[in-house]
Amino acid sequence: MKRIGLAQSDPTRTIASPVGTFSESELFARLKVDESRIEHVIVGWPLSMKGHTGSATDMVEQFLARMAKKLPGITTELLDERFTSTLANQTIRSAVPSKKKRQEKGLVDTIAAAILLQSYLDRQNR
Fold first, then answer.
1. Which of 24, 77, 105, 110 is packed most tightly, with the most Cβ within 10 A?
2. In the chain, where are the structural domains located?
3. What is the pTM of this model?
């Protein structure tokens, strides 16, 4: 994976906020620093529109295996990420006036991570 979007929740587990976009090694280093405060990590599960797995889910499985080795104290949970990039693009178009800023490579990944986490938090708080 080239870029990985990261979001975090507030202490009340109500609101997700985008943090940034990281390479895998940068992400692992950041999670290692915060490991004692992390309950678990929600990971996007990139199913096809028909709900099937494929090469993208294989990449996520490999990522999870590497993460388990490097960060054994952090538990993970998979969450269907279909439409998160579409929603992120819509959010960016409506909220970011600068075309140059909208075209930043990691922005969609970061916003998609926040959307994914917010979806998880909303389900947990029902």
1. 110
2. 4-124
3. 0.89
What pLDDT digit, counting tens, does each position of 69-125 carry? 999 999 999 999 999 999 998 998 888 878 777 677 789 999 999 999 999 999 999
- Domain 4-124, architecture per CATH: 2-Layer Sandwich (3.30)
Which residues 6+ apart lie within 8 Å of 102 measured at CB?
92, 93, 96
Closest CA to 65 of 80, 76, 55, 79: 76
Residue 27 CA to residue 19 CA, distance in Å, equals 11
| DSSP assignment of 83-101 | THHHHHHHHHHHH---HHH
pLDDT digits (tens, 9 = 90+) for 33-80: 998 899 899 999 999 999 999 999 999 999 999 999 999 999 999 999
Question: 114, 16 in Cβ contact below 8 A?
Answer: yes
Nearest to 21 by CA among 84, 110, 118: 110
> Considering only CA atoms, which of 123, 18, 38 is closest in space to residue 80?
123
Dihedral angle at the C-alpha atoms of 55, 64, 121, 116, nearest 10 degrees? -30
